[in-house]
Design goal:
This protein has 460 residues and is an alpha+beta fold. The chain is built from 11 helices and 6 strands. It has helices spanning 5-13, 23-33, 35-55, 98-165, 171-206, 230-240, 242-262, 315-382, 387-422, 427-434, 444-451; strands spanning 61-74, 79-96, 215-216, 268-281, 295-307, 437-438. The strands form 2 sheets. A 4-stranded antiparallel β-sheet has the order 1-2-4-5, with no helix packed on it. A two-stranded antiparallel ribbon has the order 3-6. Helix 3 runs antiparallel to helix 4, helix 7 packs antiparallel against helix 8 and helix 8 (315-382) packs parallel to helix 11 (444-451). It is elongated and about 135 Å long.
Amino acid sequence: MKKPLLTGLVGLFVAQPSMALDLIDAYEKALAYDSGIASARATYEAQQANVDVTRSNLLPQLDAVGTASHTDTDGPATDESYKSYTYGLELTQPVFRLDAWFNLDASEFQSESARADYSLAQQQLILDVATAYFDVLRAEDNLTTVKAAEAAFERQYDQAQERFEVGLIAITEVYESRASYDASKSERIAAEGDLDVAREQLSRLIGENAEDLQNLEQDFPLSRPQPMDPAAWENIALQQNWRIQSAAYQLQSNRSLLDVAKAGHYPTLDLSASYGNTEYDGINQQSPTQGTQDGTYTEGVIALNLNVPLYEGSGTEASIRQQRAQVVAAQESLNTVRRDVSVNTRSFYRTVNTNIESVNSQAQTIVSRRSALDATRAGYEVGTRNIVEVLDAERNYYEALRDYANARYDYVVNTLNLKLTAGTLSPQDLVDLNRWLSASAPGIEAIADESKTVDPMQGQ
């Protein structure tokens, strides 16, 4: 279980503050709320029902039939008026109907295609929830760094004003610091908007506002994709990717529908059996048409009905041409999907490895940028550096913090993208990822604090 039972029971009796939303909570809410997954599930259920519908065309059909008629005969030999009532049972069993068999094959392939689409929708929802979740964290970290930069530029601006007032610097340095401060305020406003948009995207998936999210632990491990071979990942994707499977089943379905069209040239044979009664009312003499008088008569009939199509207005040939073109279109669509999956799998494999290198590089960059910032500030205090250099060092440092956070989130999302493309993404991946989320996980501020105490030359 994701949470201890005792914790859940205590929560029933003690009023607790709202808990930070974790990744599993978000996914479970999306499963119950998202309309895309509900639509894919309903489509799959509809296709399953369609298999039973098409199968029924091969099974016996039993009908209760009834006819009521009034006959008025006026001629030189007879002049009569009577009523007749016929009722009974009629059974029909298809004996030879190739079109019905091929339609059944097509519906089964369509059902498998819908199942593949439903499985793809499930995997896509996993990716969408994770992407939206980490986009919120990404936007929060970006806003944090922008606010920190704004505060730093404001301090620089205040210090510049003080220095100018006592005649230590020129007015141009005040203008430079003010320009950087104003620009940081604009960036902060944009970052606040980006955070609101990211939260709206997550809310759209889970059906509620998500203000407080658990964050990613700083010691979250970065693992290379296994197996460490892009060709191996490509082979897995070509076998398991749900888009490929859906397109392959659609091709099979179109081939079966082509056989249905060709079956329009074939004869059909049905076995029919009927049993019923006919009542006559109003016949006072022997009827020349029925050869009987008033009363009830019973009749049973067994027949084989053969139909051989001779000419259908060229409709059968047109249907064959149409369906043959559909087969070609489905084949080309499958080829396109295969090529896309191959390229995407290799691309995501390389991107994930690049993300790992970027995270490691950005971590070192933060330390270096921090040291450069401290050195530039110290140089400014003694007059060897100017305000522009200090502002650039401040900006570079906070950009390094932001890029480090983005690289970690890129690694997580691209790893899930790789598994989606390979067809191996599952809720277990969210469970494994969720273990590294915590409401008490330090944010980007902790990275900034650590960078102040780390020697940039360590390990070199």
